[in-house]
Amino acid sequence: MRREDDGGFAPRWRAILEARWRIRLQEVTELSMAYHGAASAGTGDRDARRLLRRAVVARQRLADTEDALGRVAAGVFGRCEQCGAPITETLLVAAPETRYCAGCSVFGAVPPGTGAARVPAALR
Q1: SS percent in the chain: helix, strand, coil, step 5
Q2: What are residue 86's phi and psi, to 5 degrees?
Q3: Cα–Cα distances in angstroms (integers) from residue 86 to residues 5, 53, 92, in the given order
Q4: How many Å apart are CA 2 and CA 88, to the nearest integer?
Q5: How distant, in Å, are the alpha carbons of 41, 51, 95, 108 from that of 89?
Q6: From CA 123, how far away is CA 24, in angstroms rounded?
Q7: 92-123 tens-digit pLDDT
Q8: To which H or E segment does residue 41 belong?
Q9: I need a labelling partner for 76 at 20 to 30 A (CA). Which of 42, 55, 89, 99 fits?
């Protein structure tokens, strides 16, 4: 896939992100249903906590994908939110939801990849 100079840049990424969104939505739904089933059945606090942790992470990934779709719609997808530089194609292919270029992610103390929130300590 080529960069912005190709008129198909945004539509291709939108299609990729929409496919990822559907997969992530299904994952969130399944994990939420499994958590509620485990919690209501009393199958074990440990199992319920594990499912809750996975559901929280899945919800964050879904939110990151939604944010990336918003950046595509706004015309800023593929640009670093911190410095405005283009994000490398390699990084976008590996993690399309990423918000930061490799330089800002390493030197700016921004978490690599999507910058997604991690599971809160209280849920561990």
Answers
A1: 65, 0, 35
A2: -65, 140
A3: 12, 33, 10
A4: 10
A5: 46, 34, 10, 20
A6: 21
A7: 999 999 999 988 887 655 554 444 444 344 44
A8: helix 9-41
A9: 55
